[in-house]
């Protein structure tokens, strides 16, 4: 750790320097509030100390500026928690293999830091989880050491982050809550330094449910529009034209658009968190489960449509896609970011391989496909987008519509393009199959 100034001057500690934590740390630095950033990934810490960014939405020169002026110290040494006034936790809350909530990142981190916590500090959880998590993981054990609301403070403030969206995150209204009135005041005083609008809610559970509600709302509506896409496809109706027509209604309608399936660290995950909690209370979440099932079915539906297309074109095609070559265009879960979490592209690739097809990919943000929780697709190689490479594939499947792609070249040299994002809707080209 570089000690560019007295360590006692560091007011905020951010644990977890990923898509939420790193931008949050830099928000404080911009307001001249010094930050110690914590992460167990020593490669990340090394890059940050060298002024290098590993996120597409964070510039290296911004990191270098705050490293050099001493306002940002990245470290893997959690003992430095004792030197900050506020501890903000931005850690993953994924799913177990059985789709139950996995709070191991939160619980394991708390085990590490609890011996370094001191009076008058505040812990604020930003990670999305089911209502009751903040109390169970933090308040309950901390009560054995502190008087919460008097000599220690616990709050929850859900992150609202949309990677790839070019927006000043300080303009996004910030929800804050706390275990007690004093905890809420502490959280409010901290976050209003970096957000234009802070909204106080009465309890931890209201804030936790607010975040879950926001994300499940999106997941359910995307599930509905994906089912509508299947129906429209069967009826030879363009779903995009339907949506564009429907959204001319000035009330009672909000447009959602279909795609190849859900991805990211929140939208595909949170319905399971809510369903799990509801089940514990004896409540069945049928509607939420159905939407999740539909969204998870989209990669299979896409492969089915691809198979049907080639079976019609090639009568000899029977049970697989053996000897056929496919280009997967885009593997991140959304455009213009280097994030693979829960990306439907991985399931599409996996299913093509099961059908004995040959698969390569192109994505401007990845040189290879890293191993994920569910998939090991390292044998799938990256290709380039020149004429000879594109034209060798039997089909291109457009999964992620990155802006840094020459789509004119894709249109010119691809034999057929299965467009799962409706990216090429303005091109009246017989090569394009809308899925």
Features:
13 helices, Rossmann fold, 435 residues, 8-stranded mixed sheet, disordered N terminus
Plain-language structure description:
The protein has 2 domains: 196 residues, Rossmann fold (3-Layer(aba) Sandwich), CATH 3.40.50; 166 residues, Rossmann fold (3-Layer(aba) Sandwich). 37% of the residues lie in helices and 12% in strands. The strands form 2 sheets. The chain has an 8-stranded mixed beta sheet with strand order 3-2-1-4-5-6-7-8, sandwiched between helices. Strands 11-10-9-12-13-14 form a 6-stranded parallel beta sheet, covered by helices on one side. Helix 13 links the parallel strand 12 and strand 13.
Task: Give the topology.
Layout: E1 12-15, H1 21-30, E2 35-38, H2 42-49, H3 60-68, E3 72-75, E4 86-89, H4 104-113, E5 122-125, H5 133-142, E6 153-156, E7 174-178, H6 181-191, E8 198-200, H7 204-234, H8 239-246, H9 270-280, H10 286-313, E9 325-329, H11 344-354, E10 358-362, E11 381-382, H12 387-391, E12 395-398, H13 407-413, E13 417-419, E14 432-434
Parallel strand pairs: 1-2, 1-4, 2-3, 4-5, 5-6, 7-8, 9-10, 9-12, 10-11, 12-13, 13-14
Antiparallel strand pairs: 6-7
Helix pairs in contact: 7-9, 7-10, 10-11
């Amino acid at each position: 750790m570089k000690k560019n100034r007295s360590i006692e001057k560091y007011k905020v500690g951010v644990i977890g320097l990923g898509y939420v934590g790193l931008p949050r740390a830099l928000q404080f630095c911009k307001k001249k509030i010094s930050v110690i950033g914590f992460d167990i990934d020593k490669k990340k810490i090394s890059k940050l100390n060298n002024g290098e960014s590993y996120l597409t939405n964070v510039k290296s020169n911004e990191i270098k500026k705050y490293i050099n002026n001493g306002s940002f110290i990245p470290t893997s040494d959690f003992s430095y928690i004792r030197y900050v006034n506020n501890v903000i936790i931005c850690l993953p809350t994924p799913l177990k293999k059985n789709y139950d909530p996995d709070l191991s990142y939160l619980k394991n981190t708390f085990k590490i830091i609890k011996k370094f916590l001191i009076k008058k500090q505040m812990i604020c959880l930003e990670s999305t989880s089911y209502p009751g998590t903040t109390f169970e993981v933090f308040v309950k054990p901390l009560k054995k050491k502190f008087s919460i609301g008097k000599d220690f403070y616990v709050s929850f403030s859900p992150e609202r982050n949309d990677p790839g969206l070019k927006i000043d995150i300080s303009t996004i209204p910030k929800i804050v809550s706390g275990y007690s009135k004093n905890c809420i005041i502490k959280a409010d005083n901290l976050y209003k330094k970096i957000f234009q609008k802070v909204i106080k809610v009465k309890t931890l559970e209201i804030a936790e449910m607010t975040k879950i509600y926001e994300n499940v709302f999106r997941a359910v509506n995307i599930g509905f529009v994906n089912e509508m896409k299947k129906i429209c496809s069967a009826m030879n109706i363009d779903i995009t034209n339907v949506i564009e027509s429907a959204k001319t209604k000035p009330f009672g309608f909000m447009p959602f658009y279909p795609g190849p399936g859900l991805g990211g660290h929140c939208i595909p995950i949170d319905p399971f968190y809510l369903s799990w909690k509801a089940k514990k209370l004896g409540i069945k979440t049928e509607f939420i489960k159905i939407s999740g099932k539909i969204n998870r079915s989209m990669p299979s539906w896409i492969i089915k449509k691809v198979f049907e297309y080639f079976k019609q074109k090639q009568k000899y095609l029977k049970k697989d896609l053996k000897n056929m070559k496919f280009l997967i265009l885009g593997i991140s879960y959304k455009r213009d970011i280097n994030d693979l979490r829960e990306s439907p592209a991985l399931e599409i690739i996996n299913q093509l391989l099961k059908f004995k097809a040959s698969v390569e990919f192109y994505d401007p943000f990845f040189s290879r496909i890293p191993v994920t929780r569910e998939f090991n697709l390292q044998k799938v190689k990256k290709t380039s987008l020149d004429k000879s490479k594109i034209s060798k594939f039997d089909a291109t499947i457009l999964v992620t519509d990155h802006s840094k792609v020459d789509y004119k070249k894709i249109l010119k040299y691809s034999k057929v393009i299965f467009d799962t994002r409706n990216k090429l809707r303005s091109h009246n080209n017989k090569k394009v199959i809308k899925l």
